[in-house]
């Protein structure tokens, strides 16, 4: 089993690269952002609560996303592996993920962090906001709040994986293909 965490600030390109990774390696993509948006679309109580927070650019509670991930892991028992995208976003989530995977005897192989400048991130998110229909992408104030949440609560998650010697950083500023190539180089190491 190959379990990877794709890491980076909002707009770093995690979703785009995840799409290419699932095609090439047959992994299952678990994006907590997508799972939450699906709850919103279905109008569930969880979705209604989450929407209030997401529209402000703040994180939803750890137990909510950990519960969603746990359900998805149980529902995909025969998976070749998972790409975690947008999760873990706090150190508490990273610890919970380790416990969930310990039960499966399939730990995280590594974290791959996409490095992108702040100016490029804001530019990409505003561009995406024009046609994604995501309210949190359309408003510069909400974007700045998300970047602040990232710096305060999510950036420390890199340290968590560094201390386990599982951290890899790549340049997220090239073309989609160039970035994918850098990710593949890291994955090759894990598949050997
Ligand atoms: P982006 O990476 O572009 O910010 P996501 O789709 O990953 O987009 O997340 C959108 C919003 O969903 C976040 O701003 C946050 O409110 C919520 N969210 C997603 N994943 C998590 C998570 N693991 N923990 C807490 N909140 C989350």
Structure, explained:
The protein is an alpha/beta fold. It has one domain: Rossmann fold. The chain is 64% helix and 14% strand. It is built from 9 helices and 5 strands, in the order E-H-E-H-H-H-E-H-E-H-H-H-E-H. Adenosine-5'-diphosphate binds next to helix 2 and helix 3.
How many domains?
1
Q: Please compute the radius of gyration using only Cα atoms.
A: 16 Å
pLDDT < 50 stretches: none
CATH topology type: Rossmann fold
CATH architecture: 3-Layer(aba) Sandwich
Main beta sheet: strand number and arrangement?
5 strands, parallel
Order of helices and strands: EHEHHHEHEHHHEH
What keywords describe this structure?
Rossmann fold, five-stranded parallel β-sheet, binds adenosine-5'-diphosphate, alpha/beta
Secondary structure elements and pairings:
Elements (H helix, E strand, L loop, with lengths): L1 E6 L6 H12 L2 E4 H11 L2 H12 L5 H14 L5 E5 L5 H14 L5 E6 L2 H15 L2 H4 L1 H24 L3 E5 L4 H16 L1
Parallel strand pairs: 1-3, 1-4, 2-3, 4-5
Helix pairs in contact: 2-3, 4-5
The structure holds adenosine-5'-diphosphate (ADP).
Adenosine-5'-diphosphate binds next to helix 2 and helix 3.
Outline of the structure:
The protein has 192 residues and is α/β, with parallel strands linked by helices. It has a single domain (3-191), classed as P-loop containing nucleotide triphosphate hydrolases (Rossmann fold), CATH 3.40.50.300.
